[in-house]
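Let us practice reading a record.
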Amino acid sequence: MQRVVATTATIALVEWLTGERGAALFRQSGGGGDGSAPMLFSVNEFIVDSSDLKRMICTSPIWVYRPPY
């Protein structure tokens, strides 16, 4: 079962963003408070930890909070 699925439009947007801004990192937390919406960072702006699960969209990592999965 796939957990991260990107539409053609999403892939085009990610490719455009990384072309304009450089390497990107996406993060989706599992909480219900601040930060529970998907967030976009420059690759060196966010430090992930062992509770995050890594997947990829194009060449950009998306880190998802592990416990719900």
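A brief commentary: Residues 8-65 form one domain.
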